Each structure stands twice: as C-alpha cells, then as structure tokens.
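User: Can you model how manganese (II) ion sits in this protein?
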Amino acid sequence: MTDPAPHAVSHPALRPTSPEVWSGRIDGDGPEHRRWHQCVDSAGGDATASPDSGSPRTHADVALVGFASDEGVRRNKGRVGAAQAPDAVRTALAPLAVHGELGVHDAGTVEVADGDLESAQAALGDAVSGLLDSHRVVVVLGGGHETAWGSYLGRASSSRLLDARVGVLNLDAHFDLREAEQPTSGTPFLQMARADEARGADFRYHVVGISEASNTATLFDTADRLGATWRLDIDCAPAQLDEILAEVDVFIAGVDAVHLSIDLDVLPAAVAPGVSAPAAYGVPLETLLPLCRHLAASGKVALIDIAELNPAHDIDSRTARVAARLVHTLVAPQRRPS
Ligand SMILES: [Mn+2]
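Assistant: Here's the modeled complex, given as structure tokens:
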C-alpha cells in the first residue's frame, strides 16, 4: 500500500452537476410543495463557496460532492460501474418531498482520470475539507468504497475535525481492512487506521452488518488488533434494533463527531441489487433506516459516504432510490421526530 500522506499532485477539477439532474415536478413555490430539486444550489463546481451564496431559500447547511470512481472496485477485482453512481443518487433525490427548511449546496463531482485514483482521492479530500468548514454535514456520493479514503483526507485536514475525536461508523458487509499493494475499495479503513496512528489520533471503528462468510479470518484478526468493534448481519434483525442502537450510542458517546460510511452492499440483494458485490443475507432496511434516523438525531454526524452503488446492475433504480432515502433520512428534516 502507498504512503497514507496526501500526494503532491495536480488535482482534477470538480465537474459541475448538469442542471437536468436537479429537475422535476414543481407543484408550487411555497414550502408545502417543496422537493429536493427546489432546495439545491448547484451553481457549480466551487467547493469553497460561502454558505451565503448557497440556496436561495435558506442557508445551505448540507453539502453534496460526488466521487465518480470505480477504479478501487476494479483494483479489488469487483464488477465496475460505480463511477455512474453520483448522478444516479442525485436523480433519485431530486423529487423527494422536503418537510421543513433544507438548504443544499451541490459542489459537483470529482472524476478519476486515467486510473489515477490517488490524485482523485486527494482532490476529493480538498473538496471535503473546505465543505466541512462551511456546512453542518457533508455527503459524499461515491464511487466504490475507496471514496471513504478521500473523505478521510478531507476531514483530517479540515479546521473543524482536525483535532476532533472522530468515530468511523461503517454500515457494511465487509471490514474493508484489506492488506494490498495499492489502495482499492477494500482498503480504506486500514489506510485510516495507519494514517491515524501516524498522526497520533485514535482509530475508532465500528461496523454494522458484517458477513462472517464474506470476510476471512485474517480480516477478523486485523479488526481485533485495531480495536474495532462490529455486529454481524445475522444479528441485525429489526427485533434487535434496541441492542444495535444501544451499541451505537456507546460508540458515539466517546467521540465528538461521526464519519458515517454506508456501503450499500450492507443491504440484502433484493433491496440493493445495484451494487458491486450483492449480499446474500444483508441488513434489512427496517433496521438501517431507523438506525439512520437515530444517528441524525444525535447531531454528531458530520460526514457521510454513500458507496458502491452500481447503476449498471440496478433494477428500476431500486438501489439508487434506497440510497436517496437514506440520505434524505440522514440530512433532511423529519416530520416525526425520532
Ligand atoms: Mn465496503
């Protein structure tokens, strides 16, 4: 694996989101008719735009940035296609109804040029760093799970989270703690562990949804050695929600902020068919959605990754819609408080 320090490279620019992506039905201009596409400022490309120049409706307290990458998945020998995901999630978010005030700044999308994943991750880090300092929460729309390493680079260099105790909560069937010669979609959390060690920060890592059959004994040993905690997919039935929330509460009580990383392959393949590695078992949405509501109510979630959506294998945008519903639940106001 390469050195965890950010590379000295020329960064690919952010591609502004096409206006057609944030379009859709308009029932009226009043708050009672509000949908996501009416709350988004996608004037484009400028990740460091001041919040005041954001949404015309309200202060943009949520920032979106895309990471159009499947290079990590390709290197990890998975099925590629995740590079098309950021706009697929935006398209699924656009028509969702917003109940209350929501201001969203869409900073655009970082693309991977010529397989140069490391430069793109550094560029994502630069964008995330600036966005974190000017928004309540930053949502990174991946991309394979290599997205999470770019997010880490951003939070580790942001004024806001530089010295904060940040807990990484990963909703995933996999640990993604793989030892490899180069960074892939299977290595981001080992990269974080090493980078945290190098800068004298505690690596705090909790995973919900681990598939015992999809992680080797070596990966379980690595997780143990790093002091990680986890819950297996078979222990994530809706009836076990209270236990899951209690565990998560213990985890987040010990941190100042949460980096929530969601790998959509944590969901059953029937619910999330459009992923790089579909899950035979998976954590039901009836567990994941209340967990996300609970996390949103904690007020500690500062950074969110949505990873591994693969539109090429999706069915009726089913997986993109689930991804959008999770983002909506995490950052938009909810009529019924948790
Ligand atoms: Mn993953």
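A couple of observations from the model: Residues 14-331 form a domain with the Arginase; Chain A fold (CATH 3.40.800.10). Residues 2-8, 44-58 have pLDDT under 50 and may be disordered.
User: Helpful, thanks.
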